Amino acid sequence: MKTATLALLLGLAGAAHAQGPANLVQYAHPLVGTAKMGHTFPGATVPFGMVQLSPDTDTLAYATADGKYNPDVYRYCAGYQYDDPTIVGFSHTHFSGTGHSDLGDFLVMPTVGPLRLNPGTAARPGSGYRSRYSHKTEVAEPAYYRVKLDDPGVLAELTATARVGVHRYTFPQANDAHIVLDLMAGIYNYPGKNVWTFVRVENDSLVTGYRQTNGWGRTRTEYFALAFSKPFAHFGSRNYDQKEPYRGFWGRFDQVHDWPDLAGHQLRLHFDFATKAGEQVLLKMALSSTSTAGALRNLRAEAPGWDFDALRRQGQQLWQQELGKVEIQGSKTDKDNFYTAMYHACLTPTMYQDVDGQYRGLDQNNHQAEGFTNYTTFSLWDTFRALHPLFNLIQPKRNADMVQSMLAHYDQSAEHMLPVWSHYANENWCMSGYHSVSVLADAVLTGTVPAAQGERALAACVATARHRWYDGLGDYLDRGYVPDGRSGTSVSTTLEYALDDWCIAQLAQKLGHADLYQEFSKRAGNWQNVYDARIGYMRPRAADGTFRAKFDVLSTNGQGFIEGNAWNYSLAVPHDPAGLIAKMGGNARFVPHLDSLFTMSLPDKFFAETEDITRDGIIGNYVHGNEPAHHVAYLYNWTDQPWKTQARVRMILPKMYHPTPDGLGGNDDCGQMSAWYIFSALGFYPVAPASGEYALGSPAVQGATLRLENGKTFTVTVKNQGTKNVYVQSARLNGKLLTRPFLPVAEVMSGGELAFVMGSKPKKQ
Description:
Low-confidence stretches: 1-19
CATH topology of the domain at 25-321: Beta-galactosidase, Chain A, domain 5
Organism: Hymenobacter nivis
Structural class: alpha+beta
Keywords: Calcium, Hydrolase, Signal
Radius of gyration: 26 Å
Number of helices: 18
Subunit structure: Monomer.
Distance between the termini: 45 Å
Strand order of the largest sheet: 6-7-8-9-17-13-12-11-15
Number of strands: 37
Shape: globular
GO molecular function, one term: carbohydrate binding
Helix content: 25-40%
Oligomer: single chain
Cofactor: Ca(2+)
């Protein structure tokens, strides 16, 4: 991975010096996580940007020829796999680190020579428009991507604003240069995914249109406006629709050559040029969820000219501002890991509105965001754990807008539900629980969202948690658990409901609703109803109250848990660790049990059928590559051996995070894996959002300064730091010795100093 040019670095360093931190962009590496399981993308985007302009390296279909799920497509959740030898093209929307996918809108590819409108195959790239490439010519930086496309001999460069993707292609001399616009391409694609596509060629350098797709987002419509710096000499299209019984009277026209008014399910277009050696052709693709007029407004507002380098600098300055909210001291590897994590943590959720505040709502109508910026891409099963608590600390204004976006979702929902997993004006209902309530409760309790708005948030949380039709919730309300047989994830869903209910109880208590506090506090104890004391694990339980007889505590398949086994999920009570420890026999039994999680062996057969768990993300039987266990290393803090949390955290950090393409031990999951790293490297972690406390760990940095939005700073100082000095000898908050391994969130958000003294042996008193 290469960093910016010397001139750019010097420019950034000079600009940053006046703000505080030196150039931090050089330490953020978008290629990290692009190999194996990370599922990140390397392309150009700005913080929380609506456009993610990035290369796609294959075109695998979601289904095989017999209509069954194609497991190979899982590698392409972000469109790019580092080990692939070819690039198909550059599309404008991507998820970061997910375990399921969609998007990949509006793929663009420059070509030279005979026109080919099919993508071809990796084995025979010359059979289509894709091209071979080498990592030797590939550069990935925040807001900038560059690669040499070997087959056409074109240098491709990408940058972006919030709503506009900008391409710069340096062509060889050619009388037959083309730019292909593939409106059939997509991620997790299949032949019927495109519901409809419309294109208008407005003139010889401007094209507008939209595409509606039916995928993970059931009714997702994206509009675009595409501008060229060089007028195209000719253009053309191909309609790959299967034969339809009726097409009106459009057949009287030649719609293949230079026809400006196109529509169909499956369209590809080409724009033709003659180019001189070294000639640069630029493209600007603006997106909108509301209309082509909205896309044009976005284009003109954010990228009115053709100064690619200025837009690149502008984008990297935005990244400098976000990365500079936390300045650490440490080695280069420390900074590479930390600022790459900061980069990934600031990719999602994504802005989802035009420059005038209009956005497409869940009801498929256009709305005006009043007093907030609307966001989408809420992977809440993942991000409620650490990403949103991180935003409360260093991005409170942005997180407040995200809360308002969730409440707007609730208002527009026909089901009157807060988002579960939502993107692009769609609820996709992925995963379990209703974890938006954790985000809302934590935001109100930390003061990120004013208490005056808390009543609206509480009402939405309570309504969401009372929908009997939702995912076994009726049974949960009647019996105190989701019965085995009614749900394939009955145990984990029960545990997730209990945690969310506890968050609602804390919010109700904050706002003075004693009745709701009592109701949801009782519900929060429902985790006990799926705990089988005879075996010491959470276990599926039938509607008649009996526990399942045939049960494997190690298997991740068909045992009542989503993406995990009983070993990990039996520890998934972050809102009541003390109660869990008591249930499991107290410190004398719980601590050895927790120890063995990290040291035992989990054979591959126990997770062979679970996509989201691989050997790369496992330490013993502890699955760091998947979120349900992210709090587990901190549970020692509720025992008489808290120093073991310190040792475990410092062991996990270097094993699961590296500044390399394969440097993530699992899906980054919209920034959750990265948020775990950021908190843990600083020395504390939000085990239970809405608790008002961080659990102390062991800092991996040599020091850090958090620049808070309220104008204050919170400083972490570390004395006697070293790879062997993983044990905290003392921790002082604003000079006062901490006698418990916990840190008040409010005091951190108010600024101050956390001072660690480290040593090589545990401090057991």
